[in-house]
Amino acid sequence: MGAIRAQKTGARNVGLGLLALLLTLTACTPSTPPPGGSSQATGSASASSAAAPTAAVPSATASVPGDTDETGPPQTGDKVISSKIALDWSWPGPGRIFKATHENPVPLSPPPAAPLPTLAAIGAGQHPAETPPFDQLSFRFSGGFPSYEVVFVPELLADGSGLPVPLPGTGAILKVVFRGAQAHTADGTASTVKSAPAPNIGYKALTSYAPAGDFEGVLSYGIGVGRPMGTVPQTKVRVYEVEKIEQGQHLYVVAIQLDSTQWK
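Given the sequence above, the corresponding C-alpha cells read:
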C-alpha cells in the first residue's frame, strides 16, 4: 500500500515538473509579430522617421549635373560629400542681386595655413545634354565656402581703383563677389590658384572671365556672358554649391551655371 502511494506521488511530481518546464519554455520564446508588421517598438521608430523630413542623398550623378569641368583627371577616393542648389534658374539683374552667406571661424586654422577660404582652382565646362543646357564656371575653394554675391552689372570695375576691367566680345557681364575669401598666399606675393582656364573661354553663353580684385578678404570676378537673341533678352543663372574630395583635395565648389538654351 505504501509502495502504491509512493508511486502515485512520484508520478504527480514528474507531471508538475513537466508542466513547469513547458511554462518556462513558453515564457522564453518571443511572440510572433503580427502579419505585415513588426514589433510595437520598431513600428513606433519607423513612424517617427517617416514624420521627419527626408534629405536627398547627394551623389555625383544625381545631385551635381554634368560636373565635367574638373581641373584634372579623377583619382581613387574622389567623391561628392554634399551638394545643393543655392540659386535656382533666375535672372539676378540690377535690383535682384543674389546673396549667399556662410559663417567661417577667423582664422580658419593657425599659420602657416591660410586664415580664410582660399581659391585653389577655377574650372570651365559645357553641358549641352542637360535640361536646360548650360555653360559653367566653377570656383574651387579650400577651407570652406565663402559668402558671395552674384549680379549682372553694366560694366566690370576693379575693386579699389574703380577702373574698368575689359571683357571684350561679351553681351553682358555677371559679377561674382566672394567675401571672407582670398586668392593669394599669406605674404601676398603669389596666387593660390593652381589651375584655371584661359580668360577667353569662347563658349556661347560663357565667353570669358577676369579677376577684378583680391584685397582684405574680398575676391571679385567678372564673367562675360553672351546675350541671348530673339525674344529672351536675359540669360538665366543657376548656382550650385558642392563639397567634394577631388584629386585628393577637400574642396568647396561654387559653380556658376549660365543657361545656353538660346544657342543650342
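Residues 81-263 form one domain. Try to locate this feature in the C-alpha cell string yourself.
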